[in-house]
Amino acid sequence: MILKLVNFVRQYAIIVVLFALVIVFSILSPAFSTLNNAMNIVRQISMMSIVAVGFTFVLIGGGLDLSVGSQIAIMNVSVAFMIVNLGFNPILAVIIGIAMTTGIGWFNGFMITKTGIPPLIATLAMLTTLRGATYLISKGYPIYGIPDYLKVIGQGNIFNVIPIPGVIMVVVIAFGIILLNKTYIGRHFYALGSNTEATRLAGINIHFTRTATYTLLGFLTGIAGLVMLTRVGSGQPNIADGFELMVLTAVVLGGVSVNGGKGNIPGAIIGAAIIGVLNNGMSIIGANDYWQKVITGMVLFAVVVFDSMSRTKRKS
Asked: What is the pTM of this model?
């Protein structure tokens, strides 16, 4: 009975929280409830949501990747450097950039599965390495010169209302839902995160499956990096600093277990929406940026504790 109550609360509480935040900020500031601001929130959470889909794959499969922010940074700076300093065709540079983050994701998964390095350590090392490489390539300065037609991806609207990043986000969400719920590889992700040994004994290639989760995350991180690059309009070496914490908070808040084997894409997206509404609302009412970080950290701590307590009760 207690377990059913906990599951019910977890399933619907985040929806209640989302609507409660919208109502509170709408009361505190009329500017929050405008259509223009709603579309602005969609644009803001699009990058987080795109990465959250891939992050959900990794967490469900029992993994973790703390390097997504640095992957976005190295992709941004590298693409801008290729376009501005090396004269690459912008489309080719973008393709190379997305291929690079996909390769980084594959490498993370390969090293974790083949060497047994804890995902936390492996991806933390990758985070530091990529961030350092970003500053080496850019020499610590922004790289300007992104063509205007590329900026449309991050700054443009359809029918002058719907943000293009929002459309990309919806496509990625649909892809994630279909992959997890309608394909055998999605079922393998869940099996891997629930019980690795049982998955292996069932004849599933656990090395391939786990590496696939990281590779997909790398690819989607590259897509989010493209949106971020074209929205900012330049390669910024410090971009997406702390982004991995925001994504992790959103996904775990949405009910994806840090212990693997549990969660879904819609929940992760609702978690991203809560973080986006919270940050946007606090900015509109003039709250200090530092308080946003404090609240984000507290939310992450609370949901992880709740998840751990839920699993303990389930086992007892």
From this structure: 0.90
